[in-house]
């Protein structure tokens, strides 16, 4: 393990039902990462340290300029890190190691970039927003695909909706696995559906064939639920001719300790 950093909790806030956002301040501005990477939190638990990974949901610029870092945590019933984190108070400190992970945009991506995330698996793409905006300006075609159970579980929705509204070559899809609605309750307000995003009923895997991806000129990112990632990766490789390298993955596997 490389160096560790002592972070201080600035605040925690509800992002959606059972999803909490945490904002930490970093000890100095030397902590550097690439959008898409994750950190490992060292959770003190009954005389032991539990290591739990969380994707960085904020941009590298926020870390460099303001010394701040955000994560989003889907609360797990009886989950130890879930309990420890939600019991933290502003000013409390927490040790972190990292950054880790290869779910990062290539320097020269192919023409089309497809970013698929289930639940908090959307977080790394939020960290990429400034880069995505730059790529969109250069005419790359970008699809952000969010897989979520119901509208009350949506978060970071506004930011992706705005990106899609700004660029006709960016498409934002939301796949609801349980419930679909013509109104969305986001950030305390009902939003009516507009042209900026497309909603679907079903799992993200069922949307992929509809995107008509050309494996010659596309890279796909898959993040979140391990079962979704296995299924989607197999589908892309077996049915759509993608190579292993063209499908980047970050599985949110459960910890065994
Ligand atoms: C690379 C990586 C990145 C990750 N990024 C994120 C992230 O950005 N946000 C995030 O919320 N999580 C993320 N995770 C998952 C996270 O690391 C923890 O596993 C999760 O928060 C549960 O930890 P816990 O200590 O609260 O639960 P534990 O105490 O480890 O688990 C308690 C019980 O709940 C079960 N359980 C644990 N997780 C789930 C689940 N998701 N669904 C159903 N049952 C479960 C366990 O099997 C166990 O029985 C990531 C994991 C990896 C490997």
Automatic annotation (TrEMBL):
Q: Domain of life of the organism in this record?
A: Bacteria
Task: Extract the SUPFAM superfamilies matched here.
Answer: Ferredoxin reductase-like, C-terminal NADP-linked domain (SSF52343), Riboflavin synthase domain-like (SSF63380)
Q: In Gene Ontology terms, what is one molecular function of this protein?
A: 2 iron, 2 sulfur cluster binding
In this chain the FAD-binding FR-type domain maps to 2-106
What is the name attached to this protein's record? Ferredoxin--NADP reductase
Q: Which InterPro entries match?
A: Cbr1-like_FAD-bd_dom, Cyt_c3_hydrogenase_gsu, FAD-bd_FR_type, Flavoprot_Pyr_Nucl_cyt_Rdtase, FNR_nucleotide-bd, MRET, OxRdtase_FAD/NAD-bd, Riboflavin_synthase-like_b-brl
Please list the cofactors this protein needs. Answer: [2Fe-2S] cluster
- A biological-process GO annotation: pyrimidine nucleotide biosynthetic process
Question: One of this protein's Pfam families, by short name?
Answer: NAD_binding_1
Chain ranges passing through the membrane: none
In its UniProt entry, the species of origin is given as Spartinivicinus marinus
């Amino acid at each position: 393990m490389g160096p560790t950093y002592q972070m201080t909790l600035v605040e925690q806030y509800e992002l959606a039902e059972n999803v909490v956002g945490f904002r930490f301040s970093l000890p100095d501005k030397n902590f550097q990462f690439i959008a898409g990477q994750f950190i490992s939190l060292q959770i003190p638990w009954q005389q032991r340290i539990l290591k739990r990974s969380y994707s960085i949901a904020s941009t590298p610029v926020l870390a460099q300029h303001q010394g701040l870092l955000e994560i989003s945590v889907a609360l797990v019933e009886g989950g130890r890190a879930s309990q420890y984190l939600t019991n933290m108070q502003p000013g409390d400190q927490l040790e972190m190691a990292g950054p880790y992970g290869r779910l990062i945009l290539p320097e020269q991506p192919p023409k089309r970039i497809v970013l698929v995330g289930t639940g908090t698996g959307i977080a790394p793409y939020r960290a990429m927003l400034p880069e995505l905006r730059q790529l969109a300006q250069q005419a790359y075609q970008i699809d952000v695909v969010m897989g979520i159970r119901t509208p009350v579980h949506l978060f970071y929705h506004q930011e992706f909706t705005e990106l899609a509204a700004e660029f006709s070559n960016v498409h934002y899809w939301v796949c609801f696995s349980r419930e679909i609605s013509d109104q969305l309750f986001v950030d305390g307000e009902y939003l009516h559906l507009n042209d900026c995003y497309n909603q679907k009923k079903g799992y993200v895997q069922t949307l992929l064939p509809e995107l008509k991806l050309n494996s010659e000129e596309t890279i796909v990112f898959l993040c979140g639920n391990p079962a979704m990632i296995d299924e989607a990766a197999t589908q892309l490789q077996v049915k759509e001719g993608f190579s292993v390298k063209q499908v980047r993955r970050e599985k949110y596997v459960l910890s065994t300790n």
